[in-house]
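Hi support team,

I submitted a single chain yesterday and got back a structure, but I'm not sure I'm reading the token output correctly. Could someone confirm the output below corresponds to the sequence I sent? I've pasted both exactly as they appear in my results page.

Thanks,
R.
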Amino acid sequence: MNVYDFDKTIYSGDSTADFYIFSLKRHKKIITLAPSLLGSVIKFYVFKKGTKTDFKQVMYRFLRYCDIDKDVNDFWEINQSKIKKYYLKQKRDDDVIISASPEFLLEPIIKKLGIGTLMASRVDKHTGIYNGVNCHGKEKVRRFYEVFPDGRIDEFYSDSYSDSPLAEIADKAFMVDGEKVTKWVFK
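Hi R., thanks for writing in. Yes, this is the structure output for that exact sequence:
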């Protein structure tokens, strides 16, 4: 099986950031959360306090202003074209997507693409509260083996060295930059 990260790997951009902007344009009230989001950005990225999960839960507070199922479906109607061409050419039925983005956001596009397995951050689509931790780094490997205890990754694709734990367990690993795919360089 081949395993892929999602954002900037098979999707051109960051789907969570794109969905936030999409939602902000649609639901102007989200702007009232800007001060708490800014405070969380400073706390996490400047002062290195808290976890990425803590930061993202503050960011996901915007979900309470969304008509979530309609908004997610409308978002993918507009953004499905951002799925990269290289991926569409090599897509296989047994592909696995492992992403830090929320499951509820990726599920519709994964189904449309006919991808059988999605592992992503478990976030309540109404409250933004995590059920577990952010699906990132070593957590991706843990989640992979949780679903496939004896699983073997033929090829792994990502845009980021933060995914090195998955690259290390794959037979082959590739770095994605736009539509350009090159062999993973282990550091």
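A quick pointer for reading it: The mean pLDDT is 96. Let us know if anything else looks off.

Best,
Support desk
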